[in-house]
Amino acid sequence: MPAKSIPGKAARIAAAQAILRALGFAERQSNELSALVLLSLAGLPPRRPWAEASAPLLGITPIMEAIATNYGVTYKANTRESVRKTAVQFFVAHGLLVRNPDDPKRPTNSELTVYQLEASALTLLQSYGAPEWPKNLSDYLLARPAMLAELSRKRTLTRVPVTLPDGNLVTLSAGGQNPLIKAVVEHFAPHFTPGGVVIYLGDTETKFLHLDAPYLAKLGVILDSAAKMPDVVIHDVKRNWLVLIEAVTSAGPVDGKRRSELKQLFKSSSAGLVFVTAFETRKTMQAFLGQISWESEVWIAESPDHLIHFNGERFLGPYPDAMPAT
Question: With b meaning 16 or more CB within 10 Å and e meaning fewer, what string describes 56-70?
């Protein structure tokens, strides 16, 4: 809500809204919030000339802080997702903003994620109100399809290609645990679940990027869209095991609580459940040793032919409490 009256604020916001409409954004993406997001990412307080627009690297919280400082509008912390979904995501999709230009491999969900005005969009904004604005706008709109194609090409180059056991290729967004997920699919799966079917792959950018829901349904599992899935689900067809794998780089091993959650999520499975935590290195694993659940397995990518078994009378297999009901 507005915190104070700032000279020139209303006119500047109205101008930003006019720019967004001229760029083809719908009403929701050209409202006051979206206009304030644009102005913050252009580094423009109310009285600074458009010609002095800049392109600071800002995350969602710094964007909100800039809005409060420069325009006296304070949004509560729990509106971060509204700022992201209402404005920022749309601006990225339409090439107005670039996500993580300083590190394209940074995970989308990283707390360090930043956004920046795309270079040609910045040049366009700097001409707003000048005689050349109409021509510059026309030129920008004509060039935008090619610009979007180039941005898409650059994003594709940073994605992580993963070859599934059946030879099909999927690509995961860059960074985070996705390189480790690639190792799980391409090294763990052939060695420990030969002939297995990769039913699900998580992705930091698209949660259900690869999900064979009909296959899971045949095993008796129907998932809710809000389900907190493991990172990888593989069906070991020969032994009828459902192998549930968490790929850990900074958090999230299969501890006692997570094992119980996964048992509940897949309780209707006609396949026995096997729980695996994957790490990149032994050094990474050491920070989580005290958390890893008994009756589970650990796989380390730097030693791909070995497993570490945590207790129990069997090695890599479902325990009685994780067997399908008869």
Answer: eebbbeebbebbbeb
User: Mean pLDDT over residues 167-190, rounded?
Assistant: 84
Across the strands, what pairs with 171? 161
Q: What is the rounded CA–CA span in Å between residue 277 and residue 292?
A: 8
Token pair, residue 86, equals 């209402």
> In the chain, where are the structural domains located?
9-158, 160-322
Tell whether the model's pLDDT for residue 112 goes beyond 90: no
CATH class belonging to 160-322: alpha beta
**Residue in 157, 166, 161 with CA at minimum distance from that of residue 197:** 166
Maximal C-alpha separation, the chain: 80
**Whether the Cβ atoms of residue 314 and residue 239 lie closer than 8 Å to each other:** no
The residues that bridge with 169 in the sheet, in sequence order, are: 163
pLDDT band, residue 128 (cuts 50/70/90): very high
Strand partners, 235: 197, 242
Q: Does the domain formed by 9-158 have CATH 2.120.10.30?
A: no
pLDDT digits (tens, 9 = 90+) for 140-157: 999 988 888 877 776 665
Distance (Å, whole) CA 81 – CA 313? 47
Determine which of 11-20, 130-139, 279-288, 308-317 has the lowest per-residue pLDDT on average. Answer: 308-317
